[in-house]
Amino acid sequence: MRPRFVGRIGPADLITLANAVVGLLATVTALADPHLAARLVLLAAVGDGLDGVVARRYGGTPVGPYLDSLSDVAAFGVAPAMLVVGVLREGWGLSLAVPSTRLGVALLVAALFLAMVVLRLGLYTAYDTKTDHTHGVPSTLAATILGAAVLAQVAPPTVLLVGTAVLTYLMVAEINYPDLLARDALIMGVVHVIAVLVPDAIGRAFPYALLTLALAYLVLGPGFYWRGGDVDHVVDRWRGGG
What we know:
Elements: H1 11-29, H2 34-58, H3 64-92, H4 101-127, E1 133-135, H5 139-152, H6 157-170, E2 176-178, H7 182-197, H8 205-224, H9 230-239
Antiparallel strand pairs: 1-2
Helix pairs in contact: 1-2, 1-3, 2-3, 2-5, 2-7, 3-4, 3-5, 3-6, 4-6, 5-6, 5-8, 7-8
């Protein structure tokens, strides 16, 4: 007799569970090989988009949103936080066994990043209104920026630390980010996959491209990506100081 819960999960949920495993792998490799950990974080971002596609195609389950949030904590909270610690440890020559101010700062920023991811995911699981936008930078986008920056090798340790602190704040900021159009999500997905498979090809062109696209959405998304009446809403918020 099979366990009662087995029949209550669907194909999308299996992909979500796999994402949690990828997040674990990224976490345990972050201190030894940040480059590999960054690839795994980006792979999890691909899976995060794929489970949504599968859910829309074959139908979701009531447990899906909860599994998604739990998986995202591992893949886009713990894993990128440890990725940042791994890069800083390598770049600054830190040792987890030797306390120092720099180590304390690195761990503090990583801990705050994780805390904001957990807070954000918890709030959206409880209060998601199924709109076409989200408040604050999505944790998937924040993790993608960090992973792509590490793979592109464009962020020295100090820059990565500051960038992580900025993303930590933006994840809970009162800024509206629209959902990507299917066409743009597909383009991002293709670049994601190639960046994971061949990160060093053509002078690391694909991690560069992914980072550029992610940063463009981070900076321009709230003001220039809105559709229809949403444009007026954003302009009104800007004029009102919201």
